[in-house]
Amino acid sequence: MGEDLERETTELLQRLVRFDTVNPPGNERPAQELMAGMLRDAGFEVSLLGRTEERPNLVARLRGAGDGPTLCLLSHVDTVLADPAEWQRDPWSGDVVDGELWGRGAQDMKSQTAAEVTAALALAQSGWRPAHGDLLVSAWPTRRPAGARAPCG
User: Fold this and answer.
1) CA atoms of 103 and 93, how far apart (whole Å)
2) Domains of the chain
3) Residue 145 and residue 20: Cα distance in Å, rounded?
4) Who contacts 91 (Cβ-Cβ below 8 Å, separation ≥6)?
5) Are 51 and 63 contacting, i.e. CB atoms less than 8 angstroms apart?
6) I need a labelling partner for 24 at 20 to 30 A (CA). Which of 1, 8, 82, 130 fits?
C-alpha cells in the first residue's frame, strides 16, 4: 500500500507541477478542477468558490458519522515566478530525474497538496469515514483580499 501511495502522490504532483500557476496572475482553476474531480469521485462534497473565475478555492468535505471537530488539510497550488533560463530543467516539466521531481512548486507547496489529496483519497476510497466530525481538504490562492479568511478559518 505504501508504494501505491508514493506512486499516486508522485503522479498527482507531476500533474500539479505541469500547471503554470505563477501568481500573479495565478490561474489555479485547471489544477483545482483536476483535484475537485478526483475528490468528488471518491465521495467528497466539493465546491470551487472564489472571487474570480480563474482563482477559486477548492473545498472538499468528507462527512463523518457524528458531530465533532473538523480536521482541515490546507494548502495552496499557486507558485512564485520561475524564469526557465535560471533552471537546469523546465520548471513546469514535472520530470523525475534520479529520484527527484523537478518543477516549480515541487517542494513548496504543490508537494504538500499532492500528499494531502492522495491521503484523503485513499481514506475515502477505502470506505473510511470519520467517527466524529468531518475531513476537509482545501486548497486556495495565497493572495486574498484584505480581511479575507482561509476556507478552514
Assistant:
1) 6
2) 2-139 (3.40.630.10)
3) 22
4) 82, 84, 102, 103, 104
5) no
6) 8
Alpha-helix runs per DSSP H in the chain:
2-17, 29-41, 110-125
Distance, C-alpha 96 to centroid of its chain: 19
How many other C-beta atoms lie within 10 A of the C-beta of residue 93?
A: 18
Q: Which residues contact 133 (CB under 8 A, 6 or more apart)?
A: 64, 66, 67, 68, 69, 70, 71
